[in-house]
Every structure is written in structure tokens, then in C-alpha cells.
TrEMBL record, chain A:
<keyword id="KW-0571">Peptide transport</keyword>
<dbReference type="GO" id="GO:0015833">
    <property type="term" value="P:peptide transport"/>
</dbReference>
<feature type="transmembrane region" description="Helical">
    <location>
        <begin position="20"/>
        <end position="39"/>
    </location>
</feature>
<dbReference type="InterPro" id="IPR000515">
    <property type="entry name" value="MetI-like"/>
</dbReference>
<feature type="transmembrane region" description="Helical">
    <location>
        <begin position="217"/>
        <end position="235"/>
    </location>
</feature>
<dbReference type="GO" id="GO:0055085">
    <property type="term" value="P:transmembrane transport"/>
</dbReference>
<dbReference type="InterPro" id="IPR035906">
    <property type="entry name" value="MetI-like_sf"/>
</dbReference>
<feature type="transmembrane region" description="Helical">
    <location>
        <begin position="74"/>
        <end position="101"/>
    </location>
</feature>
<keyword id="KW-1133">Transmembrane helix</keyword>
From TrEMBL, chain B:
<dbReference type="Pfam" id="PF08352">
    <property type="entry name" value="oligo_HPY"/>
</dbReference>
<dbReference type="InterPro" id="IPR050319">
    <property type="entry name" value="ABC_transp_ATP-bind"/>
</dbReference>
<protein>
    <recommendedName>
        <fullName>ABC transporter domain-containing protein</fullName>
    </recommendedName>
</protein>
<dbReference type="GO" id="GO:0055085">
    <property type="term" value="P:transmembrane transport"/>
</dbReference>
<keyword id="KW-0067">ATP-binding</keyword>
<dbReference type="InterPro" id="IPR017871">
    <property type="entry name" value="ABC_transporter-like_CS"/>
</dbReference>
<feature type="domain" description="ABC transporter">
    <location>
        <begin position="267"/>
        <end position="513"/>
    </location>
</feature>
<dbReference type="GO" id="GO:0016887">
    <property type="term" value="F:ATP hydrolysis activity"/>
</dbReference>
<dbReference type="InterPro" id="IPR027417">
    <property type="entry name" value="P-loop_NTPase"/>
</dbReference>
């Protein structure tokens, strides 16, 4: 009894976190879209007259050494992070679902071959691929997404494969097979919808992972190149001037952390909820 | 002395639209060291009353009672009382090893170290008759058979050291032999630990075998009570008499089928074999099924019934052997023919909760099935699409579902409705053979009759055949024309159901029939506990280990099928050597 109470209070708290996270995420997206588009300043245009201004009502986070409005720059960077995170996760998700579904559903030899191939790709850390690709293709959003997608789908593929192996043994899969429904249709129409919960959870975990990879590399200076500035680049630039202008470091740093945490909370909430409906 | 005392208990279910008075003022009591039974048909409020006593009905229902006391205390589930449900899997966590589950309960009850709890768990498992408890503790629930799972649940119930155990249909999901064992076990435990047991069942046989005192419940009221012998031998109310006569009468749902000589079988199965890694799945099984016939397949859990069904549907490939449909060989290597086969065999699964896709409404599911059918036979696509909805609705009405049910998801339907939906799907493709794998064993008595009626009607109208798989001999007797008895993957006997039940020839068939619990306390008490089948015999008769008629020759040579005018039996008692001295015109009769 006592245990149950504890769980249910935990549950309630979970719902609250989830709502707060969702609202923050929506605000972040809204700002990331609207501030660079409709704001009075451009994230790239330099203006020598207003260099290194402190925080004020005109420039919420002040301006940098070239007179660019930090507020606009931060949200522009957040937008880039979101684009890279969501874009690469969508591609990763798609590849992973297809790959895992085929491997899990076909089983036996094909499963063995496909999963060993995936293991080989996954043996090298994802970051190396990204560095390699940016070196070859030149820095930029496209090469960043491409690099993340080389090995990023493997987690998704493993999850989907596991679900497929479980689902294809169920009675309803057997019933569909007896009905003479084709394998492809059983896979996509009958089995995959049942794995949707897991897929969404995994997808939500992929996003912050991609965002972090991008920020990390940009911080190291391998990722995006000027003038496109992502949150990672901003943090890197802010670091040098940390003592004099702490706002230049803190603003992008906090924005990035909140973004990562929010995605994590959402993913965990989905995971919990998936457990419940099962 | 009365341990549990309940006085005028009322339970009312409250839902938005209506109030249902499930229990209307009942009094009952249970004594320590005794088994108290509660019988009544489905929906009479037995389970509700038990849940109310245990305090497990939360806000859904209003419970009122003058008095519910256990030795003067209140009843607290998990503390001084424990409950066992019909489905053992509901009580067990599938992802936790059973040892841990029991040990946790032990530790909840009293402060002790994990090691002490483990030791106690081993003792408990041992006391419920599980051999090698240390090994079993490391296993997950799905690795155990049904009977073992129920024993584990009993062990968990005992771990709370309760004064009162409530068992709600504890044996309904088990096969007959296992039923007898579990009932015996419960009786023994009650005697030894001096707890009170409240046993709820709709099966008069179980009540007769287990109970000292019986309450009969109808429409939320106790209409009769008395000690077991009084209730069974001298019932006072009409209702009790009816319950008893229903249980004893051989209510046949099918008429004896007159077989025309030389009738062409619809399905012929010859020498099917299928081996799994280490054990026999199906070993050399042959039989025929005729048009319009219900062929029952009996046998205990794990005897290969489901494996056989899966081979017939094409879900599993046999290692060797053939299946013919209307004389035409079904070739599994040939893909095209295999497709044909798909249209002819349909299967209804045991568990209506897992055989319907949770992500599809009933309509969507049926549409999928129709699509598959249209693919096989080329139809004018446009024409068909319009037709689909009409066909689906017709089928839904046929099986007794409304078109509103069609828009629902499986989780919104009751067990019976789900099974009806599964039947609708099976019939939509006009099969020639309908396989029902324990299709009604998870349903309560009333729904079960409904579904059986529906099945039999369809088989008769459509002139198809039905392979009815079940471990319940009483049920098989009521609804089938012929029966095959499977034992460890081999067909022990195959004959007309009536003959087979009245006069079994194979020793195993006899054992199977004997393990059906008679609704008669005296007979039930004398009933032998069926032996646990053990020991593999290499090359010899599979039943050698537990056979009471075994001979020297049985050990080394497996018996072949001996056929006597429609009765086939696989036992050396009927072999040529045994018949050697007899008159060649001798008409074979049962040798046991
Ligand atoms: N996929 C499999 N892999 C390995 N062994 C299997 C498999 N399926 C079944 N078996 C084994 O084959 C034997 C027959 O199993 P089957 O499911 O046919 O029994 P059953 O008669 O249907 O039992 P129940 O009454 O419990 O449903 C069992 O010993 C089982 O463990
Ligand atoms: S062959 Fe022998 S061991 Fe097997 S059932 Fe017959 S008598 Fe018993
Ligand atoms: Mg089975």
C-alpha cells in the first residue's frame, strides 16, 4: 500500500515536470524562430558603434565585440541547434526504423548480417565521423547533420529490432500471417504501430544527443564556421571574455542546458508513460 | 471457532449511468483449518464479495457491512489475509525472478536479511511441492508451466503467513491432472498451517473435492449453505439441484455424426514430425478430419497440441510428414500452393487478449483480412471497396457484435466480445478447417456456452471442419464427434468421442478421464492424485514411465498404431503378439 502511494505521488510529479518542460520547449522554439526573423537586429551584421555594450533594455544580453546583439545571436544559435537536432534525428529515426524492422522481422541470417554490420559502424565513436565529414565536406549545417547520421541511427535500429522480435511472436502477428497478409504489410501496418511508443521515446533521446554533439564540436572549433554561430560557437567565443563580459558566456550556456534538460525530461516522461500503458 | 465472520455485506457498483447491486446482504464465516467453498454461476457476485472482504474494492464500489472481522481484527490484504487469482500471471511480475518475488513478500512481513528471506522462500517453494526450489528461484515466471506458476502464487500467499487465504477460481486455467494436484495441495496446507481457506469456483467437481462447508450464491444472495455432504447429497433449493444436475448430466451439444462408409476426409494428416532443439514437439501423428465434423484434440499441457495446430496453419514447418486437403497434397516448399493453403485453415487462439492487435479497431482488422482475401482472388477493386463495409457488418451481426463494437479497440471489449471478433476474422475468409486452440478456456461459463453455440452453428451451416483443442475432457465430451488424445507428441488414441469417453482403450486416456473431478464429495476424496509423468524412455513407449499396464516389450519398442474399425490405439496391449492366441474373429475390446 505504502509503495503504491509513493508511486502515484511520483507519477503526479512526473506529469507536472512534463508540462513545464513542454511549455519551456515551446517558448524556446518560438523565440528561436521569431527573434532572428522579426527582431530589430541581425545576428551577423556588425555595428562598430555599439561594441561591448552591457545588458540593457535595448540589448537584453548586451552586444559583442563587433557590435552584434547577443540576444539575437543566442536565439539564432538555438535555432541552428534545433534544426540540427531535429533534422538529424528525423533522418536517423527513419533509417533506424527501416533497418531495425527488417533485421528483426526477417530474423536469422539477415538479422545476423545486418546487426553485425551495424556493430562495426558503431564501433567507432560518432564524434569521429562528424569530424571526418566536416574535414572532407567543409564545415556547415549539412555536413554536421550528415556526420551525425552516419552512426546515429544504430541505437534506434537496435530498439526497433528488439521490439520487432517481440512483436512478431505475438498471436496477432500469427493471425495476420494465417490470413495471408503480405510480410511487408504485417511489418508496417500491424507491428510497427505497436512499437510507436518506444520509437518516440528513442527519438526524443536522439535530439538532445545530436544537439550536444554539435555544440561540443562547435565549441572545439570543428563544427560550424563563422559567421553561422551556433550555441557551441557562442560559448567558445564567450569563454575568452568570461571575466569581462560573463553574460556572453552564460546566456548561450544556459540556453543550451535548458534545451538539453527539457528534451531529456520529455523523453523520460514518454518512457514512463510507455511503461504504464504496457 | 469462526475465524472470519461476515455479517450482512452489501456491495454496490457505482458507475455514471447506473448502480449495480452485486452483493445484497450476505452472511458467511470461515473456520480455521477448514476449506469453505462458495459456488454460483458467473455473475452471481462471488468474486465481488471476496474482493470486498479483502478490502480490495476501491472507489468503484460502495461496501457496507455490519461486521467483517478476522479474529476480531479487520482484514488486511497482504498482512493477515492473502488472495490467489485465476490467472497466476496476473499476480506475478514477469520481469522479476520468482525467488526475489517471494523473498520480497517475506521481507515485507517481517524484518530479516535477504539471506534469511531466501532460505524461507526455498522452504515455501518446497512446501508447495516444487522440486529443486533453489534452481526454480532463479527462473522467470514464463519459464514455468501453468501449474507451477499457480504453486508459486500459493507460495507467495503463504509467505505473508495469513490467517485467511481467499482463492478465486485458482484451478480454472489448469489442466485436469494439475487441478487435482493443486486442490490437494491447498487442502494439505490448510490442515498443516491451520489457516482458513475460502475457495470460490463455478466447478462443482473442484468444490466437491476440496470443501468442508459450502455456500451457494445466486444473484448476490446466499441461497443455501451446509456441510459439503448435505449440499451434494441432499440439496434443498431448486437452484442447487440444477447446478448439480448440470454438472453431472452429459449435456451433449452435438449429435452423434453418422459416418458414411468410405467418406472422403476433408483433411488428412500423415506422419507429421516436428522436433524442437531438445524435446519432441510432435512425433509421427496421423489422423483425418471430415466435413462438418468437430475433431477434438486432448492432452495435457505441453503435449504438442498447439504445435500441431501451428503446423496445420503453416506457421511452423514440419520436419517430415504430409498434409492433404481434399486429397490434394499441401506442398510447403511450393509457395503458390502454400498461399492456397492459407485460405483454407483459420485459427482462433487461446488468449483473446493477445490475438487481436491492440493498435487496430475491429473494423480495421477485418478490413485487413478482407484485403488479403481480395489479393488472392482477383476482384474488381472499386466494386470490392464498397462491398467491404457491408461484408464486415454482416459478419459482425453474425457473431453477435454490434456495428458500434466494430469501431472499438480490443481493450474496450470484454473477453467474450474479443473472442467473437476473433471468430469473425476467422470466418471472413470462409475457411475449410477452423482450429480452435483452447478458444473458450479463458472465458466464464455463460460466455463459453454462447461462443460454443456460435462455433457449432457455423461448422454445421458452412459444412466446414473444426479442430477443437482443449485439455478439458468434460468440454470435449459435450461438443466433439471424434477425439484424438496426444501424449508427449504422439497420438495415443483416436476414436469417436462417445466411445472413447465411455470405454477408454489406452491407459493414458483412462488416466486423463480419471483426473476429471466428479461432483461428488465421496468419490472426489477417494480420487487418486495423478502421477507426475517422468523419465524419458528412449525408443520405448512414451507412456512407459507412468503406465500401470506396462510389459517387458514396452520398454524397448514403441507401439505402432493399431486400427480396429475406426478406433486407433497406440499400445502394445493391442498388438499382434498379444492377439496371437486369439480367435481371428475376435472383436477387440478394451484391454484395461
Ligand atoms: N518454439 C519452440 N521452441 C522450442 N520448444 C517448443 C517451441 N514450441 C513448443 N515447444 C515445446 O514443444 C512441446 C509442445 O508444446 P505445445 O505448445 O504444442 O503444447 P500444448 O499441448 O499446446 O500445451 P498447452 O496445453 O499448455 O497449450 C513443449 O514441450 C514445448 O516446450
Ligand atoms: S505400450 Fe505398454 S507402456 Fe505404453 S501404454 Fe501400452 S501398456 Fe502402457
Ligand atoms: Mg497450447
Amino acid at each position: 500500500m505504502r509503495k503504491e502511494n509513493r508511486i502515484s505521488s511520483k507519477k503526479r510529479k512526473g506529469y507536472r515536470d512534463e508540462k513545464a518542460a513542454l511549455i519551456i520547449l515551446l517558448i524556446w522554439i518560438f523565440l528561436a524562430v521569431c527573434v532572428p526573423l522579426f527582431g530589430p537586429y541581425s545576428p551577423t551584421e556588425q555595428n562598430a558603434e555599439i561594441r561591448n555594450q552591457p545588458m540593457s533594455l535595448i540589448h537584453f544580453f548586451g552586444t559583442d565585440e563587433f557590435g552584434r546583439d547577443n540576444f539575437t545571436r543566442v536565439w539564432y544559435g538555438a535555432g541552428i541547434s534545433l534544426v540540427i537536432g531535429v533534422g538529424s534525428s528525423l533522418i536517423n529515426g527513419m533509417i533506424g526504423i527501416l533497418y531495425g524492422a527488417v533485421a528483426g522481422y526477417r530474423g536469422k541470417r539477415i538479422d545476423m548480417i545486418l546487426m553485425r554490420a551495424a556493430d562495426v559502424i558503431a564501433a567507432i565513436p560518432s564524434i569521429l565521423y562528424v569530424i571526418l565529414i566536416t574535414l572532407v565536406m567543409g564545415p556547415g549545417i549539412k555536413s554536421m547533420i550528415f556526420g551525425i547520421c552516419i552512426a546515429g541511427w544504430i541505437d534506434m535500429a537496435r530498439v526497433v529490432r528488439g521490439e520487432m522480435i517481440r512483436l512478431k511472436e505475438t498471436d496477432f502477428a500469427a493471425a495476420a500471417k494465417i490470413d495471408g497478409i503480405s510480410g511487408i504489410r504485417i511489418l508496417f501496418r500491424h507491428l510497427l504501430p505497436n512499437a510507436l511508443g518506444m520509437i518516440v521515446v528513442n527519438f526524443l533521446f536522439l535530439i538532445p544527443q545530436a544537439i550536444f554533439t554539435e555544440a561540443f564540436l562547435s565549441f572545439l572549433g570543428v563544427g560550424l564556421s563563422a559567421p553561422t554561430a551556433s550555441l557551441g560557437t557562442l560559448i567558445q567565443e564567450g569563454r575568452d571574455r568570461m571575466i569581462l563580459y560573463p553574460c556572453e558566456l552564460l546566456a548561450p550556456l544556459i540556453t543550451l542546458c535548458v534545451l538539453l534538460v527539457v528534451f531529456h525530461i520529455l523523453a523520460m516522461a514518454m518512457e514512463r508513460r510507455g511503461g504504464q500503458t504496457d | 471457532m469462526n475465524m472470519l465472520d461476515v455479517r450482512s455485506l452489501y456491495v454496490t457498483y457505482l458507475s455514471e449511468e447506473e448502480r449495480v447491486e452485486a452483493v445484497r446482504g450476505i452472511d458467511f464465516s470461515a473456520e480455521e483449518g477448514k476449506v469453505t467453498g462458495i459456488v454460483g454461476e458467473s455473475g452471481s457476485g462471488k468474486s465481488t464479495a471476496m474482493l470486498a472482504v479483502m478490502g480490495l474494492l476501491d472507489h468503484k464500489a460502495a461496501v457496507e457491512a455490519e461486521k467483517v472481522s478476522l479474529f476480531g481484527n479487520t482484514v488486511r490484504a497482504g498482512d493477515n489475509a492473502a488472495i490467489i487469482f485465476q490467472d497466476p500471471l496476473k499476480c506475478l511480475n514477469p520481469t522479476v525472478k520468482i525467488g526475489r518475488q517471494i523473498a520480497e513478500t517475506v521481507r515485507n512481513r517481517k524484518k530479516c536479511t535477504w539471506r534469511e528471506a531466501k532460505k524461507r522462500s526455498e522452504e515455501l517453494l518446497d512446501s508447495v511441492g516444487i522440486r529443486h526450489p533453489r534452481l526454480r528461484m532463479k527462473q522467470y515466471p514464463f519459464e514455468l508451466s501453468g501449474g507451477m506458476r499457480q504453486r508459486v502464487v500459493i507460495a507467495i500467499a503463504l509467505a505473508c503467513e495469513p490467517n485467511l487465504i481467499v482463492a478465486d477460481e485458482p484451478t480454472t486455467a489448469l489442466d485436469a491432472a494439475m487441478q487435482v494436484r493443486v486442490i490437494r495441495l491447498l487442502k494439505k496446507i490448510v490442515k498443516e498451517t491451520n489457516t482458513a481457506l475460502l475457495l470460490v469456483s463455478h466447478n462443482m467437481g473442484v468444490i466437491a473435492a476440496a470443501c468442508d462447508y459450502v455456500y451457494v450464491m445466486k444473484d448476490g444472495k446466499m441461497i443455501e449453505n451446509g456441510c459439503a455432504d448435505d449440499i451434494f447429497y441432499n440439496p434443498q433449493t431448486e437452484y442447487t439441484k440444477k447446478l448439480l444436475s448440470d454438472a453431472t448430466a452429459e449435456q451433449l451439444l452435438v449429435k452423434e455424426k453418422v459416418f458414411a462408409a468410405q467418406e472422403n476426409p476433408l483433411f488428412t494428416v500423415r506422419h507429421l514430425k516436428k522436433r524442437f532443439q531438445n524435446e519432441e514437439g510432435v512425433n509421427d501423428v496421423s489422423f483425418d478430419i471430415c466435413e462438418g465434423e468437430v475433431f477434438a484434440l486432448a492432452g495435457e499441457s505441453g503435449s504438442g497440441k498447439t504445435t500441431l495446430a501451428k503446423i496445420l496453419t503453416g506457421l511452423e514447418q514440419p520436419d517430415s510428414g504430409e498434409v492433404f486437403c481434399r486429397g490434394e497434397r499441401v506442398d510447403r516448399k511450393n509457395r503458390k500452393r502454400n498461399k492456397n493453403m492459407h485460405g483454407k485453415v483459420r485459427m482462433i487462439f487461446q488468449d483473446p487478449y493477445s490475438s487481436l492487435n491492440p493498435c487496430m479497431t475491429i473494423n480495421e482488422m477485418l478490413t485487413e483480412t478482407l484485403r488479403a482475401k481480395e489479393k488472392q482472388i482477383k476482384f474488381d477493386q472499386k466494386e470490392r471497396k464498397k462491398d467491404r463495409q457491408r461484408q464486415i457488418e454482416q459478419m459482425l451481426t453474425r457473431v453477435g457484435l454490434s456495428s458500434l463494437d466494430g469501431k472499438r479497440y480490443p481493450r474496450e471489449l470484454s473477453g467474450g466480445q474479443r473472442q467473437k471478433a476473433a471468430i469473425a476474422r476467422a470466418l471472413l475468409l470462409e475457411p475449410e478447417l477452423l482450429i480452435c486452440d483452447e478458444a473458450v478456456s479463458s472465458l466464464d461459463a455463460a460466455t463459453r456456452t454462447q461462443i460454443l453455440d456460435l462455433l457449432l452453428r457455423v461448422v454445421k451451416e458452412k459444412k466446414i471442419a473444426c479442430l477443437f483443442i482443449s485439455h478439458d475432457m468434460a468440454l470435449i465430451r459435450r461438443i466433439s464427434h471424434r477425439t484424438g488424445v496426444l501424449y508427449k507428441g504422439t497420438l495415443a488414441e483416436c476414436a469417436k468421442t462417445r466411445d472413447l469417453c465411455r470405454d477408454p482403450w489406452h491407459p493414458y486416456t483412462k488416466a486423463l478421464l480419471d483426473s476429471v473431478m466428479p461432483p461428488d464429495p465421496l468419490k472426489a476424496r477417494k480420487q487418486k492424485v495423478p502421477a507426475v509423468h517422468e523419465g524419458k524412455s528412449e525408443g520405448g513407449c512414451p507412456y512407459f514411465g507412468s503406465c500401470g499396464y506396462k510389459m517387458e516389450m514396452c520398454k524397448d519398442a514403441a507401439p505402432e498404431m493399431y486400427d480396429f474399425e475406426g478406433r486407433a490405439v497406440s499400445c502394445h496391449l493391442y498388438s499382434k503378439q498379444q492377439r496371437a492366441g486369439r480367435n481371428p474373429n475376435y472383436k477387440m475390446t478394451s484391454q484395461i
